[in-house]
Write a structure and sequence with these properties.
The protein has one domain: Vaccinia Virus protein VP39 (Rossmann fold), CATH 3.40.50. Helix content is 28%, strand content 27%. The chain has 7 helices and 9 strands, in the order H-H-E-H-E-H-E-E-E-H-E-H-E-H-E-E. The structure holds S-adenosylmethionine.
């Protein structure tokens, strides 16, 4: 296991999860419908933690697939609901199924299309910005590998003044978003706001649509 992985597991163990929000992210609630994704369609939440965004997406009628390194986070997520849950670890990933939500415990970079199934979209809040500079291009390529042409998602990134090497969360500006994603996604900036945690951080909301044959080019 890498040092970065150890650091995330230690954060969860020690409860250093200041990024966690008890309520669904306001930008998700406000902007999700602009993606126009059908009820019943499957949504990927990479590096999901125990975000209630997943329950909100399920309540909109989606099947939700969450992927998270810290199984402790996924256990906590499952325990927050009375809904029965099934658990197995047949694959390289530990898996929980609770209603329309399926959670995979393991490294996102080992998550394969065969497990993801036919995805229609994704929701990245604080996933890209959790990763150091050297890993972010790999993340953008892996996301593209998992999503078919036309799949759409929201990406909520962050900038701060502490410098590009300081994180997590890392500061990822517009130039970098376009450099990482433009080859495989149509990227549209939607808005920027102060991050609720203050500390001079700003959150930036993007809509991304996977490019490729059959995907509408607006
Ligand atoms: C900043 S948190 C964001 C969690 C969630 N998206 C939210 O909004 O609360 C980043 C999460 O990514 C997880 N993580 C880091 N590297 C990962 C990897 N390679 N595979 C899966 N999860 C990872 C961490 O354990 C942590 O829970």
């Amino acid at each position: 296991m890498s040092d970065q992985h150890e650091q995330w597991l230690a954060r969860w163990r020690e409860g250093r999860i200041g990024f966690h929000l008890a309520e669904p992210h306001p930008r998700l609630v406000e902007y999700w419908s602009c993606l126009g994704l059908a009820q019943g369609s499957r949504i990927l939440v990479p590096l999901c933690g125990k975000t209630p965004d997943m329950r909100w997406l399920a309540a909109q009628g989606h099947e939700v697939i969450g992927v998270e390194l810290a199984t402790e986070a996924l256990e906590a997520f499952v325990a927050e609901s009375d809904q029965p849950a099934a658990h197995d670890n047949d694959t390289r990933f530990e898996r929980w199924q609770q209603g329309a939500i399926t959670l995979y415990g393991g490294d996102f970079f080992h998550f394969r299309p065969a497990l993801a199934g036919e995805l229609a979209g994704f929701h990245d809040r604080a996933a890209l910005v959790a990763l150091p500079p050297s890993t972010r291009q790999r993340y953008a390529l892996h996301l593209a590998h998992l999503l078919p042409p036309g799949a759409a998602g929201l990406l909520i990134s962050l900038t701060h003044a502490a410098g590009p090497a300081e994180g997590p969360p890392y500061s990822v500006d517009e130039h970098e978003i376009r450099r990482l994603f433009d080859a495989n996604f149509r990227c549209e900036w939607l808005r920027s706001d102060e991050d609720a945690r203050g500390q001079g951080m700003r959150e930036h909301l993007w809509r991304l649509v996977r490019r490729g044959p059959g995907a509408a080019e607006a």
